[in-house]
Every structure is written in structure tokens, then in C-alpha cells.
């Protein structure tokens, strides 16, 4: 393997101007027993009011399921984390005296090492010189990414519909988002190529994508599309921002035949790893992929613990911005998640992820069964997702009986009518227009939209947020709202 390409020419002026924090450079001497460290405003750990924290988690391999309450001692793991190393039960535990102190902007070494081993196991990154650093989740990672590469007025590429908070983060920084057409299977490489070939002026530095279980569409890019998009990144010299909080929520392909579903589940670690879709970072021979990863969807959103995978020279720029913004990820979180993971081990963590796959496959199946049953097929269209927490149902607004007479051929008025009818019926799905990327270049590009899509609207639902019985009730109610609105 060889090292990454030099991509520092794509950094923003803000990022290029950042210097190491002078105070932070002295912290490397903090743990040196030969140095009396009088240089930092670090309180003595004696004054931290927690001497020990204790947590309990299910024990791998989770034979009764990841949601089962442990019934016996061998079904659970008790994690006791003391203030000092001598008080901890595992040699890889992070003592509270260190995790609750300033320092370690890159992340506590024990947890970082576990995540790096996990990354090697799953992604097999094909170049030398990559690394990871800790973040407080993908939302913060994306904000730091924009500041690291973009200046106000720059244009980036985004999926035609994308996570609304990510779009607003770019809006607030004055970064223009140019929408790339998508279909039921994500970004259309041919459309992206046409956009780039027709581009006037400086080309975008970044493509922001949620390639697996995309939010809001639920789509997932195939390995073939990922390879084509990566080749375009090489040809047009941009960086792919791979935002992947849903990566491990992959699932078996949906089938209407419920009797055949059980035999399709993956069980072994080998089966699980082979079933995972190709990641952009695993294709990255240049070091032009920045992967945003997180424990939010696989452990807990409130843990606020994520990480960035990228080539080392680019990560160094992230560390500089983190030193003067987030400082470091939460010490409690790092000690607790690390304490759990080192007790599970790499194999136990894979067992946990396999359990998640099984749970989300079942949730997805219940949701799509309900859509099949309650949504009128004359006006509804959907592609069952193979990853993530979301599904979308499309509607042809032109088939609404009031499309011309009252709505003036405006699809958004049909969308709003469906939304209001759903609320009246007691069910809420999110209108697709809420996720629309609306940026444009100057001069404007030609229209690259997919022909025939002008009157198509969609709604986003999730099968993750409510118990299965309420999920079915909610979809039945919204299906009735569609039937009422379209006069069926």
C-alpha cells in the first residue's frame, strides 16, 4: 500500500491559517513523572466528585436478543470504573482521573485503539497513513468539515434530498449546496458526471452523501455506483464526505413472503461482514474520502460520541479546530463506552451489530407489510429500504382530483393536503420537500433533473421510533388519509 495524495490545496483559508494551540503543545508533558507540571489550568482529580461509576449491560453474544433484560449473572456485564487505574477491573479501562480531565483532543487512546481495530476489520482501508479522531457525533463532525474545507460562497455537491440539519449547517456558513439527482437507489452517477462536465468556474471541493440508509429517502448506493462516484472524485479532484450513522443498520432484502424471511438472516461474523455494502473508505486509494461515523444509532444518540476516519494530514486540521471548540468528547462517555466494548471484545461488538440487523430487518418488514396493505397502489410507489431507519412512499400529485382545479398544478399543495389529512387522521409522516436541497450556481446550470419527476412527491416515515403495534396503526391511518385525499 502507498500513502495518500496531498489534498491540502482543498483546505479552506480558515483551516490553512490555524496554528497549533500553544497551550495544547505543553500537554504532552502532563503525564511525564519527571516533570512537575505547572503549565495548565487542570484541577486535581481529587476534587472530581465521582470516585466510581457503575453500569450494567447485556453480555455477548446476546443469545436472548439485544433488547432482553439479563436474567442471570452470566447474561450481563457489570462495568465499574474507578478514579484511578488500580481501581478498574480491566486493563484497558479509562480511569476517571484521566477521562474527566482536559486533554486528549484526538480521543482517549484505549477507545481510539478499539475503533481503529474495528475499522480495519470492517473497511480494510487500502492506503497507509489513515487515522481516526474522536468527535461528539456526526452533526458536529459535519460542521467542522465545512469549516475545514469551505469558505463563504463556495459550492458543494449534495444529494437532491438530504438531512435538513446538514443542509442548514451549510446555509448558516454561506456554503451553497448544489443538488445532485437521485433515484430509489441513491445518487445517479451519470447525472453527477454530466453536472461536473458542464460546470463553469471552480469545481466543488466536496460531495456530501449519506450513502447507506439515506436520510430521508432510505436509499442505499450499490457497490457499482460507489465505484463510479469515486472515479468521478478522482477525475474532478473533490473529496467525498461519507456520512454513515446508519451503516450498520443494514438488513436483508424485503420479501412479501413472510415464511421465507427467517432463513435469510445472517448469523456468523463472516456472514455479517460479507453482507455489509462496500464503503467509500474501503475504495479509497487516494485518501480523498472523509468518513463520519458515530455510536448514535448503534449505542445511544445521547452518548454524543463519534469519530472521523481520514488521512492523517487532513485529520490534523480537524484537531486544530477541535482544540478551540469542542476540546474533546465527553469523558464519561469515553470511559463508559470503552468499558463496555473492551468487555464485549471485537467479536462481541459484532454480535451486538448482528442483533441490531435482525431487529431492524423485522421493524422494516412490519412497516413495509403495513404500507403494502393500507396504501392505495393506484397512486403509491415505494422501494423497500435495505438499510437505515427510514422508508419513503411516493405519490403522483397529478392524480389528485383537485390538482388542476384547486391546486393550480402545484405538487407542494397536494403534499400539504396529504400532510394535513394525515394529522387529522392521527398520523404524521414528514413531507419530502422539507429535505430539498435548493442551492444553485451562478450562472445557473442546465436542468439535470430526472425526466417525469416534476409532479412526484414523497413522505418519509420511520420504523425506529415507536412500538410495532403503533407503527402499524399509524401507517393504516396515513393510508386512509391518502385514500381520502385521492378520492379512492
Sum this structure up briefly.
InterPro entries: Aminotransferase_I/II_large, Class-I_PLP-dep_aminotransf, PyrdxlP-dep_Trfase, PyrdxlP-dep_Trfase_major. This protein is an alpha/beta fold and 488 residues long. It contains 13 helices and 15 strands.
Mean pLDDT: 92
Distance between the termini: 61 Å
Backbone shape: globular
User: Based on DSSP secondary structure assignment, what is the total number of beta strands?
Assistant: 15
Rg, rounded, reads: 24 Å
H-E string: HHEEHHEHEHEEEHEHEHEEHHEEHEEH
By CATH, the topology of the domain at 105-244 and 279-329 is Aspartate Aminotransferase, domain 2
CATH architecture of the domain at 105-244 and 279-329: 3-Layer(aba) Sandwich
**Percent in helix:** 25-40%
Fourth-tier CATH superfamily name of the domain at 105-244 and 279-329 = Type I PLP-dependent aspartate aminotransferase-like (Major domain)
CATH class of the domain at 105-244 and 279-329 reads Alpha Beta
Characterize the main sheet.
7 strands, mixed
Major sheet: arrangement of strands: 3-11-10-9-8-4-5
Structural class: alpha/beta
Task: List the uncertain runs.
Answer: none
What is the percentage of strand-forming residues?
5-15%
Tally of alpha and pi helices? 13
Catalytic activity: an aromatic L-alpha-amino acid + 2-oxoglutarate = an aromatic oxo-acid + L-glutamate
Domain Aminotransferase class I/classII large: 100-437
Organism: Wickerhamomyces anomalus (strain ATCC 58044 / CBS 1984 / NCYC 433 / NRRL Y-366-8) (Yeast)
GO biological process, one term: tyrosine biosynthetic process
Amino acid at each position: 500500500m502507498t500513502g495518500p495524495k496531498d489534498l491540502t490545496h482543498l483546505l479552506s483559508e480558515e483551516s490553512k491559517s490555524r496554528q497549533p494551540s500553544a497551550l495544547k503543545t505543553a500537554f504532552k508533558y502532563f503525564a511525564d513523572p519527571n516533570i512537575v507540571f505547572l503549565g495548565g489550568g487542570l484541577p486535581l482529580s481529587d476534587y472530581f466528585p465521582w470516585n466510581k461509576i457503575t453500569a450494567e449491560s447485556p453480555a455477548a453474544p446476546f443469545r436472548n436478543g439485544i433488547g432482553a433484560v439479563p436474567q442471570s449473572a452470566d447474561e450481563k456485564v457489570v462495568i465499574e470504573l474507578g478514579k484511578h487505574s488500580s481501581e478498574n477491573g480491566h486493563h484497558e479501562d479509562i480511569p476517571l482521573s484521566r477521562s474527566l480531565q482536559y486533554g486528549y483532543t484526538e480521543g482517549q487512546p484505549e477507545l481510539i485503539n478499539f475503533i481503529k481495530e474495528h475499522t480495519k476489520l470492517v473497511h480494510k482501508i487500502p492506503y497507509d497513513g489513515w487515522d481516526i479522531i474522536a468527535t461528539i457525533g456526526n452533526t458536529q463532525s459535519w460542521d467542522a468539515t465545512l469549516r475545514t474545507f469551505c469558505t463563504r460562497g463556495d459550492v458543494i455537491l449534495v444529494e437532491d434530498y438530504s438531512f435538513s440539519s446538514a443542509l442548514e449547517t451549510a446555509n448558516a456558513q454561506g456554503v451553497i449546496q448544489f443538488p445532485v439527482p437521485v433515484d430509489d437507489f441513491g445518487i445517479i452517477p451519470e447525472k453527477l458526471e454530466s453536472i461536473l462536465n458542464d460546470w463553469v468556474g471552480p469545481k466543488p471541493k466536496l460531495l456530501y452523501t449519506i450513502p447507506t440508509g439515506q436520510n430521508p429517502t432510505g436509499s442505499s448506493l450499490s457497490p457499482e455506483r460507489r465505484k463510479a462516484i469515486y472515479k468521478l472524485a478522482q477525475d474532478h479532484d473533490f473529496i467525498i464526505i461519507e456520512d454513515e450513522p446508519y451503516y450498520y443498520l443494514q438488513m436483508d432484502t424485503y420479501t412479501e413472503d413472510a415464511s421465507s424471511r427467517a432463513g435469510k438472516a445472517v448469523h456468523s461474523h463472516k456472514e455479517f461482514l460479507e453482507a455489509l455494502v462496500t464503503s467509500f473508505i474501503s475504495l479509497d486509494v487516494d485518501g480523498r474520502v472523509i468518513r463520519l461515523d458515530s455510536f448514535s444509532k448503534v449505542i445511544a444518540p445521547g452518548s454524543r460520541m463519534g469519530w472521523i476516519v481520514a488521512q492523517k494530514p487532513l485529520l490534523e486540521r480537524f484537531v486544530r479546530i477541535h482544540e478551540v471548540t469542542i476540546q474533546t468528547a465527553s469523558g464519561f462517555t469515553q470511559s463508559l463506552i470503552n468499558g463496555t466494548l473492551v468487555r464485549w471484545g471485537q467479536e462481541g461488538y459484532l454480535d451486538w451489530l448482528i442483533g441490531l440487523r435482525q431487529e431492524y430487518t423485522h421493524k422494516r418488514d412490519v412497516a413495509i407489510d403495513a404500507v403494502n396493505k393500507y396504501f392505495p397502489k393506484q397512486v403509491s410507489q415505494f422501494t423497500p429500504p435495505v438499510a437505515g431507519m427510514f422508508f419513503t412512499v411516493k405519490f403522483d400529485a397529478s392524480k389528485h382530483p383537485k390538482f388542476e382545479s384547486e391546486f393550480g398544478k402545484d405538487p407542494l399543495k397536494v403534499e400539504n393536503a396529504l400532510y394535513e389529512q394525515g394529522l387529522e387522521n392521527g398520523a404524521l409522516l414528514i413531507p419530502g420537500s422539507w429535505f430539498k436541497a435548493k442551492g444553485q450556481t451562478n450562472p445557473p446550470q442546465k436542468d439535470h433533473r430526472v425526466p417525469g419527476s416534476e409532479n412526484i412527491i414523497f413522505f418519509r416515515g420511520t420504523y425506529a421510533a415507536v412500538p410495532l403495534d403503533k407503527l402499524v396503526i399509524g401507517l393504516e391511518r396515513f393510508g386512509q388519509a391518502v385514500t381520502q385525499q385521492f378520492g379512492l
